[in-house]
Amino acid sequence: MRIARLGGSTLYDLHPDLSNRLASEAVKTAEHFLNICIRALDYCPPVDIRFGDFLRAMITADSDLVPDDPYGYRIAIIDAFRSRGIVPEGAASFSEESLRWASPEIFDGTSLPTCKGLEFDVFKHDPDLQKEAEKKNGGVLHDYAVANQEALGLSAEEGMKIQARTFHEVHRVRPDGEVLFDFVAELTQHREVPADPQNPDAGTFTFRGGTTLVIDRAGEVRVAIQKRVGAVADDSKNVRLKQQRAYLNDRISSVGMAAYVTDSRLAARLANATIDFKLVHRGY
Asked: Is residue 58 part of a domain?
């Protein structure tokens, strides 16, 4: 109350106590928001992340750690995305319950068995032991994914290999001091698809999919975040594939040398090109 009554001679002349308090609260809020964003990275799909996906990741990550949301961060985040017209796919509404990523049982009624055999203590002092534990975890995750392909949103078509490229243990501390232990794994697949189904000379590009799993220490899959690569027979109905194909064709048509080279050469180069943000600082 003492700070609230303080003021200056003009609108912009704040008392030092009030300005320091405002700065302190602003820093605290920024730190909380940054932590929410960082934690959300573990709740994103392994490929093709959209703004709506990141919204769902933020809400899920924060709900797991702070169920009651005393400061109303999640409401503010949802309103910010909604006011900008960002609509997440797969969510029935903008409520917290709809935006949280769900386990496979809730998502489509599919029951998943426990993932047994994971080694949680992968941060060992001996590099050889750590490498051995990581190799073991990779094998366990791969075998689990192969045995539960359909439930995990992975394709079982011939030649569609499953790769467990990324997996790590996560420690999170709740405001009350309780420590949560989870295991985050990314399972990926890819296949080559034609850049233009009507033009065999247009070349191909790599279409990727996969699933992010959040597994607790008991081996139960709490969350499965899917980006299905889909079956070849269903390519005509695959919305994500159509969007990527349209984006690639748009890039091809906008390249200055498009009139002088074949589509297949451009498609191959653009599909495998990476964006180097350092080039922004070249200057002209």
From this structure: yes
Query: How many structural domains is the chain composed of?
Result: 1
What are the structure tokens assigned to 228, written together? 């299905």
How far are the Cα atoms of 132, 229, 233, 267 from residue 150, in angstroms, in the given order?
Answer: 29, 12, 16, 31
pLDDT for 1 equals 45
- Tell me: pLDDT of 187 over 90: yes
CB-neighbour burial class of residue 274 (10 A; exposed 0-12, middle 13-18, buried 19+): exposed
Distance separating alpha carbons of residues 194 and 207, to the nearest angstrom: 10
List, in order, residues 6 or more apart from 122 with CB less than 8 Å away. 130, 133, 134, 137, 168, 169
* Residue 251, H or E segment: helix 239-254
In a domain, 95, yes or no: yes
- pLDDT(12) > 70: no
Does any domain span residue 210? no
- Residue carrying structure tokens 């003021």: 7
Show Cβ contacts of residue 3 under 8 Å, excluding neighbours closer than 6 positions. Answer: 15, 17, 18, 21
The model's pLDDT over 89-104, given as tens digits with 9 standing for 90+, comes to 888 899 999 999 987 7
Expressed as residue numbers, the domain containing 50 is 18-100
Query: Whole-angstrom Cα distance, residue 137 to residue 164?
Result: 9
* Single pTM value for the model: 0.81
Confidence of residue 27 (pLDDT cuts 50, 70, 90): very high
- Number of C-beta neighbours around residue 174 at 10 A: 12
Inside any domain, residue 50:
yes
